[in-house]
Amino acid sequence: MSYKNFNCLECGEEFGESKKLHMHLRSHKIIMGNYYVKHYPRKSLFDGELIPFKTLEQYMGSYFFDDAERDKWLESASTERVQAFLLKTFKDAFNKNNNEALTYNDIASSRLPSVESCIKTFSSYGLMCKQLGVKATLSKRIPSDFWTADLSKMTIMIDTREQTPFVYRNSISSKIDIGDYTAMGDDYDYTYVDRKAKGDFISTLSKANFERFKKEMQRVRDLESQIYVVVEAPIKEIKERKSFNRKQASVEHIFHNMREIQREFSDVCQFVFADNVEHAREITARILKCGKNIWGVDLQYFINNR
Ligand SMILES: [Zn+2]
């Protein structure tokens, strides 16, 4: 029975909306949480224990005590059960995203099961999306020479404002209109890299700078170019920090803003999280070498599942 018909299961009276039902529960001297746990008991798929009630939306949408327990279940349950669970979970998530598939970083920055669990179960994320009848926005495969292309003859232009620039065999310092790095000469291909240390990434997407960042993305679009925001830390490391100092936004808000940018500027901008500074240096050069050949590739997917 749906909890959304708002009939009181204590006395049978009909209400038609949640607010009226919840007011009415006082006459039975039962608090909202206890009412839902009594009449709509939800048990963890992992160990059958009752799931605690926090909010109605949380409670009715929960299958586990928490995400860690869910991930343990994904590792241990039968393939059929995991498949059914992932299909349902991602169907709901894609519905909320106008029936479009989410990118690797959309998923990694949210509370959804990992892309890796989809790969393990469906052999690729694309195949799962196909089963759900949605198309990925970034569906191209990574060029086969992404990791192997010869970079020795490429010259990289580095913006004069870079404080401690990445070191490359051939580079020049010059003022760049967008981002911090681009390729020169024959290698130039309308492709730019904006390099961000962990702290820069957070401040760029915080409230004070968010509108300015959007304006920059609009400028990239006007120049018919693409920019890759290369962050010098893995998303996991940023996610694990619950909140920054009091003046800064919570990490959830930062990632919310990142997803908003990725949606609004999916044709011009991608965020890429490297393992560390040296990894960021290498990825930057490889992005610039590939140029337009990596536009439309969900780069993070291929970096993390190399
Ligand atoms: Zn009642």
Question: What would your notes on this structure say?
Answer:
This protein has helices spanning 18-24, 32-39, 56-60, 67-76, 79-96, 104-108, 115-122, 125-131, 198-204, 207-222, 235-239, 251-264, 277-290, 299-304; strands spanning 156-159, 171-174, 181-183, 191-196, 226-231, 269-273. With 306 residues, it is of the alpha/beta class. The protein is built from 14 helices and 6 strands. Among the domains are: 78-131; 156-304, Rossmann fold (3-Layer(aba) Sandwich), CATH 3.40.50. The longest helix is centred in the N-terminal third of the chain and has 18 residues, at 79-96. A hairpin with a 7-residue loop joins strand 3 and strand 4. The chain binds zinc ion. Zinc ion is lined by residues 8, 10-11, 13, 24, 28.
| Helical residues, percent | 40-55%
Number of strands: 6
Describe the strand arrangement of the main beta sheet, using strand numbers: 2-1-3-4-5-6
What is the correct CATH architecture of one domain?
3-Layer(aba) Sandwich
CATH hierarchy, class of one domain: Alpha Beta
**DSSP strand (E) fraction?**
5-15%
The small molecules bound here are: zinc ion
- Helices and strands, in order, run as HHHHHHHHEEEEHHEHHEHH
Rg on CA atoms, Å: 23 Å
Query: Which structural class matches the secondary elements?
Result: alpha/beta
What is the 3D shape?
elongated
**Termini, distance in Å?**
45 Å
Give me the number of helical elements. Answer: 14
Strand count, sense and closure of the main sheet? Answer: 6 strands, mixed
**CATH topology description of one domain:** Rossmann fold
Unreliable stretches (pLDDT < 50, length at least 5) are none
Summarize model confidence as the mean pLDDT: 93
